[in-house]
Specification:
Elements (H helix, E strand, L loop, with lengths): L3 H5 E4 L5 E2 L11 E9 L9 E10 L5 E12 L5 E6 L3 E4 L15 E8 L4 E8 L6 H4 L24 E3 L3 E4 L4 E3 L9 E4 L2 E4 L4 E3 L7 E3 L4 E4 L8 E2 L7 E4 L4 E4 L6 E2 L18 E4 L4 E4 L4 E3 L5 E6 L11 E3 L4 E6 L3 E2 L4 E3 L4 E10 L7 E7 L2 E10 L4 E10 L4 E7 L8 E8 L2
Antiparallel strand pairs: 1-3, 2-3, 3-6, 4-5, 4-8, 5-7, 8-9, 10-11, 11-12, 13-14, 14-15, 16-17, 17-18, 19-20, 20-21, 22-23, 23-24, 25-27, 25-35, 26-34, 28-29, 29-34, 30-33, 30-35, 31-32, 31-34
Length: 427
């Protein structure tokens, strides 16, 4: 679940971990922590109440929580800053009940910070403690130990000792050596958005260093986050091209001499109007034409197949009806009308038609006709008896716009019958 706080705010943490030490009787226990809270636009959250939870983890960032505490109702300043002391909050978890019980010398330790703005805590990250917090462990050096053997009086100069460091080992003359290589952590800077971070250290906001350029409708270039910055007028760079066909010269506004393009002109008669061509397409014929040039026919395929699957009933005996095949399987060229059952030739040529018919229902003496432009072109069968099935092929020459259709005379039947109507252009 993503909390509402994550949608509304984030914090830019600039913190310093300072282990307090003292040369007095007691060492003040705590680690100073300071941060700046900002919203998702980088603006400080001023006078905002937040909750902060600290977890100290041993071994690795996902290791054991040895100490955890909560600071409730932490108020940010008018600059969005809030300051806390780790160790002075309310203990809420971990192996130890007090910061002083942490065994700093046993393992690396890490600090996990969580902040609650509204309803849920948001994990702000985990980073390793470096050398400074371990001053807390140094307070044990103030505790008196057992009295050692009394030394012999002698030359005070013999008590002088020298510290030396070779990059990894800290040594004292006539004493022991401590290996500090584990504290030699490489530093790495990263820049995310307007936040500069150092690995294992604090973060710095660079919001006033991130600038935005804006070019308005008047061609004025300005820096949006710096009202006092100089505005640059780029209008002089706003140029346009123009061409004069009378002298074939190309000119740019605000430029130098125009460019003569006469040498690029390849027109024997110098008349630009005869170079303009017009494309036309005749959907009836399928002809694509360009003015003053040839014509190309795009109707490479003209044909159709339609059928009447169910016979009409309740017709008047001895009457003639259009035989409409309304169920179209294909219609290349879109010249067959399924509503009227007619085919219109898109261009002149030779066409072939195939007609099948089945005399469904009772009644004989039916007459099936093929019509051209509404006139009977051929009687396909003059006396069709009930239950008869027939197939007829008819080839005819059609001019552009001729219409081919069929009719059925019911004879002694009240049924139309069923069948198919197929046609295509031969050449």
């Amino acid at each position: 679940m993503i909390s509402k706080g994550l949608n509304r705010y984030y914090t830019l943490l600039i913190f310093f971990l300072i282990g307090s030490t003292s040369f007095g009787q007691n060492v003040p226990l705590g680690i100073f922590y300071q941060a700046v809270a900002r919203d998702n636009n980088g603006k400080e959250l001023v006078n905002k109440d937040i909750d902060v939870k600290f977890s100290i983890i041993s071994g690795n960032p996902l290791g054991t929580v040895v100490y955890q505490e909560l600071h409730s109702v932490v108020n940010t300043t008018k600059y969005g800053v809030f300051s806390l002391i780790i160790g002075h909050g309310t203990q809420t978890g971990g192996l130890y009940s007090d910061l002083s019980q942490i065994q700093w010398n046993q393992a690396f330790h890490y600090l996990k910070v969580e902040v609650k703005f509204d309803n849920d805590f948001i994990n702000m990250g985990t980073m390793q403690f470096l050398a400074v917090p371990y001053a807390l462990y140094a307070q044990k050096s103030l505790e008196p130990g057992p009295q050692g053997p009394k030394g012999d009086p002698g030359d005070p100069a013999s008590d002088n000792q020298t510290l030396s460091f070779n990059g990894n080992n800290l040594s004292i003359s006539n004493g022991n050596t401590v290996n500090l290589s584990t504290l030699n952590v490489p530093h790495q800077l990263t820049l995310i958005g307007d936040t500069l971070s150092i690995l294992g250290g604090n973060k710095v906001a660079l919001t006033n260093q991130i600038q935005d350029l804006q070019l308005d409708v008047n061609n004025l270039l300005k820096i949006t986050k710096n009202p006092s910055a100089t505005v640059i007028d780029l209008s002089k760079f706003n140029q346009s091209l123009s061409f004069n066909p009378s002298d074939n010269k190309l000119t740019i506004s605000g430029g130098t001499s125009p460019v003569d393009l006469t040498s690029l002109k390849n027109d024997a008669d110098s008349d630009p109007t005869n170079e303009l061509q017009t494309l036309t397409y005749d959907k009836n014929t399928g002809d694509l034409s360009i003015s003053s040039k040839n014509t190309v026919n795009l109707l490479t395929s003209i044909g159709f197949k339609a059928k009447k699957s169910i016979s009409q009933t309740g017709l008047t005996q001895g009457s003639t009806y259009p035989f409409v095949n309304s169920d179209v399987e294909f219609n290349d060229g879109a010249r067959y009308d399924s509503g009227t059952g007619s085919f219109t030739a898109p261009m002149s040529g030779i066409y072939t038609f195939c007609i099948t018919y089945k005399a469904d229902g009772p009644g004989s003496a039916r007459v099936l006709n093929l019509l051209k432009n509404g006139i009977v072109y051929e009687i396909l069968d003059p006396d069709i008896t009930s239950g008869t099935e027939l197939t007829k092929w008819v080839t005819m020459k059609l001019d552009q716009g001729n219409v081919v259709s069929m009719t059925i005379n019911t004879g002694t039947s009240t049924y139309s019958g069923s069948g198919t109507f197929v046609g295509y252009k031969v050449n």
